[in-house]
């Protein structure tokens, strides 16, 4: 009986895509064992509760100890699972690697590579300034409130151009309005 390993990155928030991909890939199996590295957003637990073909209990494994794994489904953000993908290939594990299209935020002051600047003065910048409009948590909360209600000049359709990109600002690693944008984008199902 096959043992399927599922791996997804911490910032992948789209259960719809997870469930759709895993269901389609496993649709021809009458039964299987399921293993995972980490269940950051409880996607594996949720999936297990809806699939009666899973034999025995879930098994959490370490990336360095994947003996007994016959198949792998890896949601790839381009960074988190490079070693796992390589190790699975070397071990002859049949793998499906799915592009997770993760958006992340980095600090441009530290010279970190980014695709789009989202700081003050940009189309995506937070109009609320720390100090003048509140502390960090308050200005992020105000940004999130306005974003969720569509009060900005950019719409949620326009924001899609940021999906899968690295956003640059001055805040990271501290909390940032970019986290609001990234969380929204990382929860969307791209239909792919």
What are the key terms here?
5 helices; 192 residues; Rossmann fold; 3-stranded parallel beta sheet; alpha/beta; 5-stranded parallel beta sheet; 8 strands
- Largest sheet composition: 5 strands, parallel
> Low-confidence segments, ≥5 residues, pLDDT <50?
none
H/E series, N to C? EHEHEEHEEEHEH
Architecture of the largest domain, CATH level 2? 3-Layer(aba) Sandwich
CATH class of the largest domain: Alpha Beta
Q: Give the strand order, joined by hyphens, for the main sheet.
A: 3-2-1-4-5
Radius of gyration: 19 Å
What does this 3D model show about the protein?
The protein is an alpha/beta fold. Helix content is 26%, strand content 17%. The strands form 2 sheets. Strands 3-2-1-4-5 form a 5-stranded parallel β-sheet, with helices on both faces. It has a 3-stranded parallel β-sheet with strand order 6-8-7, covered by helices on one side. β1, α1 and β2 form a beta-alpha-beta unit. The radius of gyration is 19 Å and the shape is elongated. The protein starts with a strand and ends in a 6-residue tail after the last helix.
Topology:
Blueprint: E1 3-7, H1 15-26, E2 33-36, H2 43-48, E3 59-60, E4 71-76, H3 82-90, E5 94-99, E6 104-107, E7 116-117, H4 136-148, E8 166-169, H5 177-186
Parallel strand pairs: 1-2, 1-4, 2-3, 4-5, 6-8, 7-8
Short description:
With about 190 residues, this protein is α/β, with parallel strands linked by helices.
